[in-house]
Specification:
- This protein is of the alpha/beta class.
- It has 2 domains: about 1-160 and about 335-375, D-Maltodextrin-Binding Protein, domain 2; about 165-330 and about 415-460, D-Maltodextrin-Binding Protein, domain 2 (3-Layer(aba) Sandwich).
- Helix content is about 40%, strand content about 10%.
- The chain has 19 helices and 12 strands.
- The strands form 3 sheets. Strands 2-1-3-12-6 form a 5-stranded mixed β-sheet, sandwiched between helices. Strands 7, 8, 9, 10 and 11 form a 5-stranded mixed β-sheet that branches. Strands 4-5 form a two-stranded antiparallel sheet.
- β4 (about 150) and β5 (about 155) form a beta hairpin.
- The longest helix has 18 residues, at about 440-460.
- The chain starts with a helix and ends with a helix.
Length: about 450
């Protein structure tokens, strides 16, 4: 029955079309003094686990990570199956689906985003971890990790890396304008900064900020700006599958986008982004925009690269809030979802690897900031030093602001994506374009987006 379900999935493009690429590679490093939870008692019989991952060697340092686990856990070997040497998550998922449909041996699975994680959980691909967690000290995932991976009341994965969104700042531009690096701020303050930082006219104009989306139904984070700093209600669809486009925060996002582009003229015009195929790295590093809202996969590039050298000082600010009294630190987050395969014959050993990898293993790997909340400040600082040391000009990065933002960041609750989520994205993207191109107003945009989204929901009801 399991194999049959996956034959069906492997033959359709629906599953793959919704998936977004994972981002962020870091530098090498193997330091870490944090004690790993769980014991290291070897199993009675030697076993070999097969780990299926989109992560290549460059991005994940498997040759340094796996031996450390095997040394700490005699009797357990791990065979890494890299599904894409390019680290392409879409290519990886196609190969993973085919492997599952073929009944290949699987023990540990890695997913790069909530959509691919939630969809494959609904198809029975991963084992619930609750019973293993109960035996392993009965810890709470929300206490142990900064990302809550709970779906429908159960835990099917533990989170690996921790890539919160933040705001990159051209500190030279801030100094020139007499602005401080924000440690806690609102969207109103963000908009004021953007307006103040905007300078010049015409082809040489410098914008206060650059928003890289939406584009072709992708980069939809930029359609949820005011929704991002919330514990719940951060998506266009609610957890029960109904539309969330009535949210006043969706309307607020549209209002901000229109005001900044049309009135304040502080954000790069949408028409330029699309017609010129602008790239966010070039806009920021070439100093065409003073602020960039983006994910912290950029940590590995903050000090500049061969392609984009850093010719100014960079600071980091947290994701803006809607009101001063809102909780600080909540932000969109990307992570790796590390699961035990439901078909594994070695689930106890597979769980042991998952738990180790998402805790001490992240420090050993030395590529990203871990989701594990038990990481010491000294370890965090050392990891950032390691990551920045691989860039061209690490001394130009305000490490104190980067440390502060990463330490305070936390993810909102995951809302399981619907199978038709990409259709909803496309609708919202299309209606936004009509708005930003002056072909309809905000109320009409919301009305039409709601109506079209509801038709999609209704047509997918069973």
């Amino acid at each position: 029955m399991f194999k049959g379900k996956w034959m069906a999935i492997a033959s359709t493009a629906v599953v793959v079309s919704m998936l977004t690429a994972a981002c962020g590679n870091g530098g090498d490093g193997t330091s870490g003094s944090t004690t790993s939870p769980g014991g290291s008692t070897p199993p009675k019989e030697p076993v070999t686990l097969k780990l299926y991952t989109f992560g290549n060697e460059v991005g994940y340092n498997w040759t340094g990570t796996i031996p450390a686990f095997e040394k700490a856990n005699p009797g357990i070997k791990v065979e890494v199956v890299v599904l894409s040497e390019k680290g392409d998550s879409q290519e990886s998922l196609k190969k993973l689906d085919l492997a599952a449909a073929s009944g290949d041996t699987m023990d540990v699975l890695m997913f790069s985003d909530p959509a691919s994680y939630a969809q494959r959980i609904s198809l029975g691909m991963a084992e619930p971890l609750d019973s293993f967690i109960a035996k392993d000290g009965n810890y709470k995932v929300t206490d142990e990790y900064k990302v809550d991976t709970t779906l429908n009341g159960k835990v099917y994965a533990l989170p690996g890396k921790f890539n919160p969104w933040y705001v990159l700042l051209n500190k030279n531009h801030l100094d020139e304008a007499g602005l401080k690096v924000p440690k806690d701020w609102t969207w109103d303050e963000f908009m004021t900064y953007a307006k103040t930082l905007t300078k010049g006219e015409g082809a040489t104009k410098r914008y206060g900020t650059y928003f890289h989306g939406p584009q072709g139904g992708g980069w939809m984070e930029f359609m949820k700006l005011a929704m991002g700093n919330q514990t719940t209600g951060t998506e266009f669809l609610k957890e029960d599958g109904t539309s969330n486009l009535d949210s006043p925060l969706f309307k607020k996002t549209l209002e901000m986008r229109v005001k900044m582009e049309k009135e304040d003229k502080s954000a790069t015009p949408y028409t330029d982004i699309i017609s010129q195929k602008l790239a966010y790295r070039a806009q920021f590093f070439n100093q065409n925009a003073s602020m960039l809202l983006i994910g912290s996969w950029m940590n590995t590039e903050l000090g500049g690269t061969d392609q984009f050298p850093l010719n100014f000082n960079v600071a980091v600010a947290p994701y803006p809030k809607n009101a001063p009294g809102d909780a600080a630190g909540l932000t969109p987050v990307t992570t790796d979802y590390v699961s035990v395969a439901a078909s594994s014959k070695h689930k106890e050993e597979a769980y042991k690897f998952v738990r180790w990898y998402t805790t001490e293993g992240q420090i050993v790997q030395g590529k990203n900031i871990p989701s594990w909340s038990k990481v010491k400040d000294s370890d965090m600082s050392a990891m950032i030093d390691t990551i920045l040391s691989k860039t061209k000009s690490p001394e130009k990065v305000d490490k104190a602001s980067l440390n502060s933002v990463l330490a305070m960041s936390k993810a909102s609750k995951i809302i399981p994506p619907a199978a038709y989520q990409s259709e909803v994205f496309k609708v919202i993207n299309e209606e936004y374009e009509l708005l930003i191109l002056n072909k309809q107003d905000i109320d009409t945009t919301i009305k039409k987006a709601k109506e079209r989204t509801q038709k999609i929901i209704d047509s997918n009801k069973k």
